[in-house]
Amino acid sequence: MSVAVRLAAPTPDLDEARRQLDALGYCVVPNVLSAAEVAALKARLVEQAEGERARGVAFRDGGPSQPNQRIWMLLNKGRVFRDLMLHPIVGALMGHLLGPDFLVSSFTANIAHPGGEPMVLHTDQGYVGFWTPSPVVANIAWMLDDFTEANGGTRLVPASHLNSAATPRSSAYAPAEPANMPTLEDTIGAEGKAGSILCFDGRIWHGTGANRTDEPRHALLSYHCRPYIRQQENMVLGLDPAVRAAERPALLNRLGFATWAGLGRVESPRPATPLFVSSGAVGPLGADGVPIDA
Questions:
Q1: Mapping DSSP to helix (H, G, I), strand (E, B) and coil, where does residue 27 land?
Q2: Contacts of 23 (CB under 8 A, 6+ apart)
Q3: Which of 156, 233, 257, 261 is most buried when burial is the number of CB atoms within 10 A of its CB?
Q4: Domain assignment of residue 274, given as a range
Q5: Which CATH number belongs to the domain containing residue 97 in this structure?
Q6: Can you give the pTM of this predicted structure?
Q7: pLDDT, tens digit, for every residue of 39-56?
Q8: Going along the chain, which residue ranges are E strands?
Q9: What's the pLDDT tens digit per position in 124-147?
Q10: Cα dihedral value 254, 18, 159, 153, nearest 10
Q11: Is 122 part of a structural domain of the chain?
C-alpha cells in the first residue's frame, strides 16, 4: 500500500487541530499540560509501575524480552489521573470526533523501554469489521516524555482513516488483515514535546514504535468511544467502589454510569436519577407487590 506522507505540524489552534483530524486522521497539540502537571502524572505513574512489579502483577509486552510495561485501569490509581479525564482538551477533540456524549473506553499507560519491538500496525476500531464514514472510537496519547523517532513515538499512516479498502474485515478481537494493509514503510513517527498530546481517529492505522534510546518513554493512553459502543474497560465492574462513591457526577457520566438514549438502564426507560445515584432496580415481587425471594 502506498500513501503520500503528509505531516501534521503541531498546532495549539484547536480549529486547525480538528481540520488535521479530519484530513489526516491525527493531530499533535503542544503545551496541553504544564511542566508541573507532567511531573505529577509521571511521578504517580512511575510509582504505580514499580508497585505493580513489586507485587508481581505487572503486565509486560513489546516482544520476546517484554521490556515494556502497561498499567491498566488508571482511574483507580490516582486522583491525578481521574482529573485528566475532565481536561477541556478531551471534550474539544473527542467531542469533534465522537459527538458530545462520548465515553472513556479505557485509560491506561505504556512505558516503552529500550529494546521493545514495533507494535503490529492496527486500527483501534478493527473489531467493528467494516469501514465507517465517521469514527466510533478515538485515542489521545498524553506525552509525559518527548516523543521522538528514536524513542518509538507512535507510528501512523496519515489519511489511512479515509481508506475503506484497508479496513479489517473480521469482527474478532484479532481482525483479519486486508490484502492491501499498510506497512511500516508507509508510516511516519509522531513527535512532540512532553506535555503535548497526540490525538488520532480510531480508523487510522498505527502502532507503537521501537525505542532505540537508553531511556524509557512514558505515555498515558485515553481511549474514547461513542456512547453506544461497549467500553474496553468495564467501568461498572472495574471501578473501585470507594472511587465511585466519592467521584464527581461529570466524570461518572463520562465513564458510563448514566443512561443514554435508553441504553444502560436497569428498570425505567427514563430513570428520574442517573444510575450512579440510584439504580432504581426492582427485584422479585409477589402478586401483592411485596418483594420476595425468587
A1: strand
A2: 159
A3: 156
A4: 268-294
A5: 2.60.120.620
A6: 0.88
A7: 999 999 999 998 988 888
A8: 26-29, 59-61, 68-71, 103-112, 137-143, 155-156, 188-189, 197-201, 206-207, 217-225
A9: 998 898 899 999 999 999 999 999
A10: -70
A11: yes
